[in-house]
Amino acid sequence: MTSVPSFGLIIVGDEILSGKRADKHLPKVIELLAARGLQLAYADYVGDDPERITATLRRAFASADIVFSCGGIGATPDDHTRQCAARALGTALELHPEAAELIRERMRDVAQEQGTAYEPDRADNLHRLNMGVFPHGARIIPNPYNKIPGFSCSGAGGGAVHFVPGFPVMAWPMIEWVLDAHCRQWFNRQPQTERSVVVYGAMEAALTPLMERVEAAHAGVKVFSLPSVDHPVHGRHIELGVKGALALVPGAWDDLLKGLHEFGANLGPELVRNT
Predict the structure, then answer these.
(1) 182 partner at 20 to 30 Å CA-CA among 58, 160, 208, 237?
(2) CA-to-CA dists, residue 111 to 116, 117, 146, angstroms
(3) Is the pLDDT of residue 272 over 80?
(4) What is the pLDDT of residues 19-32, one digit of tens each?
(5) How far apart are CA 53 and CA 73, in angstroms?
């Protein structure tokens, strides 16, 4: 792919939707992408329901997007992501030989740490190999925390889904590895910027025609409006701005400011954010 793809995020787990655990992946993935001049296009949250997980992954595999899926790749009864990935791809599950060796290496390490003999044929050790059962054709994502790998699969749409554990201490360095190993060609290809201004005492409905006019006149630029009713510094206000590729924003910003002055808006501080 020559153009920069869309990046997506899937968070799997009942514990997130029930509130038992707060999701930390969304802000971190946004941060990891932004550090490389990329941005997140969407995020999906799905519980431990195989049908919903499969449907979500089927959409991801049909797209040209680069998607990270966090959670559900273990080998307990509530872990369904590996099986759902195979179902979404219409392929079989199989023990990945490199994953199997990494898992055995981890089990040997644990036995050595505990001062016990490594027993590869013990029932619990054989069960642990299920964590290396991936859809046919999957590729390994190394796990620097405990060696138990994640995996990547390509889809019919031309994109890929990269599966990592739900634990941040494992997931985040694994996502970074995928970005640096497989997405470097897109780093900082389209630097983005935002320019905005605080508008006091105006209603969004009154500013909507100006917003529509600016967006229509500047292809590739988005106009945004973020109202606030209880800001500790600015009180009730609207942050009104434009965002897009670095080269496209200045013209749209000039038109927006001109329109606000013609409107007679009471303007406050201006803000600039670059990614």
Answers:
(1) 58
(2) 5, 6, 13
(3) yes
(4) 999 999 999 999 99
(5) 12
